[in-house]
Design a protein that fits this description.
The complex is a heterodimer of chains A (249) and B (83).
Chain A lengths: L2 H6 L1 H4 L5 H10 L1 E5 L5 H10 L4 E5 L24 H12 L4 E5 L5 H10 L2 E4 L4 H14 L3 E7 L2 E7 L9 H4 L18 H20 L8 E6 L4 E6 L13
Parallel strand pairs in A: 1-2, 1-4, 2-3, 4-5
Antiparallel strand pairs in A: 5-6, 6-7, 7-8
Chain B lengths: L1 E5 L1 H7 L3 E4 L8 H9 L7 H4 L4 E4 L2 E3 L10 E5 L6
Classes of the chains: A alpha/beta (249), B alpha+beta (83).
The complex binds zinc ion.
Zinc ion binds next to helix 8 of chain A.
Chain lengths: 249, 83
């Protein structure tokens, strides 16, 4: 780190669990943020501000006016532009040192696996179950920690699935695929703006802890938030030994 | 009494986030509690029909055959997506 960086990141360096070593890990790290919407906006902004070296920002959508109520990466001038590009511009304004890679498409298949393979941590900030399961499969297969957040209406959920840890559950252990869950989409459902900020910010916090190797992550714990009552509940999770995704690991 | 919590779409459909339920004497497990509540009819049947509905007893992930006792807290929660 040069003098400018020592100053810029001094408030992290002052924290014993992070320190110079942790900050250097942030600077050398690559995070994959899947979805540049309500969750991906605050998550990516905090990761960039914290000095994460490379952010791969993946989103196949373009910005529309209804996004602006909560997706704080984007502005009126971004309407009609790819979210990943608009997001890159905002992140570069915040921290020109962070390298932002634009992935202006929906990641799937081998493309998804190649991006997950390159990442040190993966943040699932997407809006649909099919992608959640695909991202989970890729992270289990490639041994990458997954920070999974979800927010709709006043309801939030967040957990960490880090199957590098023995006995750790994966997303599929919690919510098995194939039960044809009805999609509750932001496209048709309301979303309380700061809820996405709360959950997305927690995702950034968990990702940074994973990168620095400090504290205890949300691995094995699901947090449920009811933002109407502002009540949190913790649910301790278990690995499903018969899970077709992680069961043999 | 059993404290029952409802989350996400279930909370919205039922219009309640929490209640105290006085269980029938023969109520043994989460599955029986769910059936007992669903027997109220109407939206309560969503306890049986909601896909991928998950349960926790005293904040531990549970299954339909997980025992429930007086004084326990039981949470019902479906998966949420949306980003
Ligand atoms: Zn699993």
């Amino acid at each position: 780190m040069n003098d400018q960086q020592l100053l810029r990141y001094s408030r992290h360096i002052l924290l014993d669990p992070i320190g110079i070593e942790g900050q250097e890990r942030f600077l050398a790290a690559r995070a994959l943020v899947i979805g540049a919407g309500g969750l991906g906006s605050p998550a990516a902004l905090y990761l960039a501000a914290a000095g994460v070296g490379t952010l791969a920002l993946a989103d196949g959508d373009t910005v529309d006016l209804t996004n602006l109520q909560r997706q704080i990466l984007h502005t009126e001038a971004s309407v009609g532009r790819p979210k990943a590009e608009s997001g890159r511009d905002a992140l570069q304004r915040l921290n020109p040192e962070t390298r932002v890679e634009v992935i202006a498409r929906r990641l799937e298949g081998a493309d998804l696996e190649a991006e997950v393979a390159k990442a040190d941590v993966v943040l699932d900030c997407c809006d649909n179950f099919a992608t959640r399961h695909a991202v989970n499969r890729a992270c289990v297969k490639l041994g990458k920690p997954l920070v999974s957040g979800a927010a709709v209406r006043f309801d939030g959920q967040i957990s960490v699935f880090d199957t590098r840890q023995p006995g750790a559950p994966c997303y599929h252990c919690l919510f098995p695929e194939g039960e044809d869950v009805e999609e509750v989409r932001c496209a048709t459902m309301g979303v309380f703006a700061p809820l996405t900020g709360i959950i997305g910010t927690l995702q950034a916090a968990e990702a940074l802890k994973l990168l620095a190797g400090c504290g205890q992550t949300l691995g094995g714990r699901l947090l449920l938030l009811d933002a109407l009552t502002m009540e949190w509940r913790t649910v301790r999770l278990q690995k499903d030994p018969g899970c077709p995704v992680c069961g043999s690991r | 009494m059993i404290k029952v919590l409802y989350f996400a779409g279930l909370r919205e459909a039922l219009g309640t986030a929490a209640e105290e339920v006085s269980p029938p004497l023969d109520l043994l497990d989460v599955g029986a509690l769910r059936a007992h509540l669903a027997a109220r009819g109407g939206d309560w049947e969503k306890l049986l029909t909601t896909k991928n509905l998950r349960f926790a007893v005293n904040q531990d992930m549970a299954r339909a055959d997980t025992p429930v006792h007086d004084g326990d807290e039981v949470a019902f929660f479906p998966p949420v997506t949306g980003g």
